[in-house]
Amino acid sequence: MRVSIVRAIVDDAVLPIPVNDEIVTISNAIGTCVAWPRNLVVIPGEKAPPKAIQQKKKNRANTKKRMRDVFDDNEDLGNLPPNLPTTLKDLCTWGNNFLRDGVTIHITFAADLFGSSKKVCLFRSDLYTMANKLEVSNRVLVFYMSYLHEVLKRCKMVDMVAFVDPD
After folding, report:
1. Which of 71, 95, 122 is the last residue of a domain?
2. Does the CA dihedral 96-100-104-105 come out positive or negative?
3. Do 29 and 61 contact (CB within 8 A), yes or no?
4. Has residue 165 been placed in a domain?
5. What are the residue ranges of helices labelled H in 42-116?
6. Domain assignment present for 77
7. What does residue 79 show for φ and ψ, rounded to 5 degrees?
8. Mean pLDDT computed over 11-40
């Protein structure tokens, strides 16, 4: 199956199917989609197959807490730095209201950006890192590259610049 890795529980764990020489461990694969054996796929909220993962039974409150941790809802998008551009403030305000419980922004970019179509999703944590000027993920870079590509189209300069997929 094709899975998206959001968070590593064990950073040094080796991927069941390495992508290339650079993406070998789980921590290298965060924010990307990788091939994964179907019997090891666990969807949050579903019961894991007993052979794949053995877990102790938890009460309902612990399960809800674990789900919140998986989706990174703890970023405070309401408390923003004072000097943010208005468009970024608006995006963070929107994200604070609508990007909860694992909801993401999904966009499929056309082939004219990287030579082939690419599906990318932004998480609440991505908005938080942009607003607070922290290290951004490849996902954020792709969105920014698409913005720059649109600016180049308007200026009729697309043939002068090429973008490389950061993944």
Report:
1. 71
2. negative
3. no
4. no
5. 60-71, 86-98, 111-114
6. no
7. -100, 90
8. 80
